[in-house]
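Technical note accompanying the year-one report. For the benefit of new consortium partners, we illustrate the data format agreed upon in the data management plan: each record pairs a sequence with a structure-token string. No post-processing was applied to the example shown here.
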Amino acid sequence: MRNPTTTTLGYALFATRWLQAPLYFGLVAAQGVYVYKFFKELWTLILMCVSGHASETYVMLAVLKLVDVVMIANLLIMVIVGGYETFVSRIGLQGHRDQPEWLSHVNSNVLKVKLATAIVGISSVHLLQMFVDVHHTSRHALLWGTVIHMAFIFSAAILAYMSGPMAAHGDRGHAERPQAAPGRETPPRAERDHGDQRHGKPEEEGTAAMPAVPRQPGPDAEDRIRAAGFPARKLLEDFDQQHPRGFDRETAARLGKAEFVAARRNVVLVGPPGTGKTHLAIGFGVRACQAGHRVLFATAAEWAARLSDARAAGRLDAELAALDEYPLLIVDEVGYTPFDAATAGLFFRLVAHRYERASLIVTGDRPPGRWDEVFGASAPALVDRLAHHADVVRLDGDSYRTRRATSAWAD
């Protein structure tokens, strides 16, 4: 039992974070000062060039000064937006077309490293200015400018080195936390899928928190979304939550944060055709892309064809390994077509390969308990591994497509 007094004190203490909000708005005013300074310097440079009084060295120094102002302004933006998001409150930019890619996985660790590298960049510009204007810079100033710059580089390298183990420790903590809850277990390291087929239904976005899997350098969120092979771009915000008669909105909202990808959990969406399973699956996939994860979407029939081709070419193991590059695979329309024993065995290989290593989203028209109708003898072992670390969302209701068509016919 929680102590009500302790809880109230905790909430009150937590609310004091809003005292920092005016500080960030103060930095916004400082950003305005730098905008004024930038255009003042730019105007002076233009006048000097037009009047013919600008030497090559003067132009170079003036441009470096402009670059310096811009880099400091960038540093301010990172502190304002990233700091507010980390220490005060969520800004809620998920789905915004201009959301910075780094903001989707910002935390205090990432912020410190980005600030350190920004400071090193600013210091580099200052040092370059000294060397460009070397005839008017004393040796003493050059020496100390170089020493201070090297100190910045050294401290940034130390901070980046220390942030690795700290981030890994934090990710392990996030991944293990769900196991403490009754009935919830968290799978280990995630593997990824590969594939680019398209057939399926529309779904919505899902947000992701910091993944336990280290992020790999790659394309930005929009590139990941395009590469995922979604049949259409569907967002969670566009999902009609009132249409399904039975729908666990709380679980869907939690899955929309895409933390299940970091925890290597699976998602099974079950319901009759037209109730929005594919829409939700795509929505979760889009959110995962925005959180920095690579995603691959295909229908069950397309996955069957892909795996069968790989087996026929003698490279099934290599194909499964290639899919490790994707933390999330989406298998749509399970149950619409029964599979023969050999194909069912391929699906078992896929699920077993990713078990407790990476996430799957599976949509189907029947609950996993009836998957023997689709996968035959392979179903019990396949369901055992898929459902062990899974959230099952059931959708009940009439087909959204049929409802709209019936309404049109009635008109």
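Partners are asked to follow this layout when depositing records. Residues 311 and 317 are 8 Å apart (CA to CA).
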